[in-house]
Every structure is written in C-alpha cells, then in structure tokens.
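Session log. Operator J.P. requested a structure for one protein chain; no other inputs attached. Running the standard single-chain path with token output.
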Amino acid sequence: MTRQGYNTWLNGYVIPKWGDCTLQDLQARPVDLWLQSLDLAPKSKVHIRGLVRALWEFAMWLGDVPIQRNPMELVTIKGATKRMKRPRSLTVGEFQQLVEQLDEPFRTMALVCVCFGLRISECLALKWSDVDWLNGTLSVERGIVHQVVDEVKTPESQRSMCIDGEMLDVLKMWKQRTQFSAQGDWMFASPVQIGRLPLSYAGVWRALRRSALKAGIGHLSSHTFRHTHRSWLDAVGTPVGVQQRLMRHTDIRTTMNVYGTAATADMRQAHAKIVRLALARA
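Structure written below.
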C-alpha cells in the first residue's frame, strides 16, 4: 500500500475501533470478528489486516512487545483471492460513444488513460514537463491520491513511454486550450485550485458517470480504461511480453508474461495501434 492508503485505513477504521486499546488487545480472534463485521470488500479487509500486522512487526522491532508469532498471521479473510466484480473493458464502439459525451479536459484524460493504460492517480499527476515533445515520450513520475502527491504504485510503474504522433497532436491541442500550459503546470490542472492542484478524482468520477449514462453504456470506473487498454492490446495481437512492459507490471504473472523484455519498436507499434482504435482511425 502507499502512504496515503495506510493513512486511509488507519484513520478511517483502525483508530476509531482500537485507538483506546493497547497493541496487545489486537489479538487474532477479536480482530477477525471485527473484520467480519465491516461492510467492506475482502481486498479492503486484507489491506487493514496488513496494516495491523505491520504495527505488530514495528512494535516487536522497537522492543515494545516480545518477539513472537504475529497474531495477524492467524486472521483469514474469506474471499480474499476472489474478485467481487468482473473487470470491465470497453469495446471500441462503447469508448467512442463515451468520448462523444465527454467535455474537456475529461475527453483528453480518457484518451490518455486508454492509450497508455495509466491508473487515474498517475494520469491526474501528469505535468507538462513529463512530455518530451521532440522525442515523443511520456514520463510517468508520480501519483496523486486524495490530492496528496506520492510515488507511483511500483518501481516498474515509473517509466518513460512512447507517444504516437496522433496522440501527441491530442496533447498539443489540449495544451493550447488550457490556461495552465507552463512546463511545471499540471496537465489536468483544477481551475478551482487556480492550477495549484490537478482535478480531484471525485470530479473525474462524476464526469465519467454522467457521460456514461448519456452514452448508454452503463456503469464504469476510471480503472475501466486500464482494463480496456489491456484487452485492446490483446485484440491487436500484441505479444504478452510487450503487454507486460506497456502495462508496467512488476510481477510477470500479473500480465501472464512469457518473456521479460520487449523491444522498443514493438512497444511503439502496439501503442500506435491502440491510439488508432481510440481515435477511430482505420
């Protein structure tokens, strides 16, 4: 988890329940029963258990409690390995319907997410300085969650990605329209914040929800674009090793990787095919 993720679980769940207790009170059975009572997805419960486990480990390292088996190792989360919902990917037609309903900057944001497979936290944290216009590359340097800038999810996520010429044109058009176009400005700066911060995720979510309803394509989330990117890579015949590099996955099993290194030329070609689909080019 990221630092912001730790703070969310700690302040939202652990402290309200256990803030007046000692660490010794956080034993396996009471924690197990507490987690069962929470109306959260199994994955969220796993994160909370992991945080409590880390607190125990830290206390043992400090010498505040004797070194022992971590009680959280005895806490099991039912359904932790199962997805609650099947990941959704958009067809080319559905994406085009959505884009037609999106106003700027959400239209450009959707194109960036689907063409590069970015997480919304990475997309919102882009700055104009991350674009190398001459060499046609985009650097993913940071993420932002709850308006707090942090590191990207994994070391593999931080990398430079090639930009197809047509996608460069899309970015240039948005750069010409936005009032925040200096090198150090956020690519999707918030006018409400006078450019000091990017748009909030809540604002993006509302725009996507509203446009998806107008387009008649049902519910979607910002992460749908990343799943769409992956499925489109598959559809255009991209080798799995190239997919792993473009998706910036650390664990090769995440992308069902067959080999670890992909040539830059193959990555650029695969990216170009996705851009053609996103922009409805034959």
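Operator note: Residues 127 and 153 are 18 Å apart (CA to CA).
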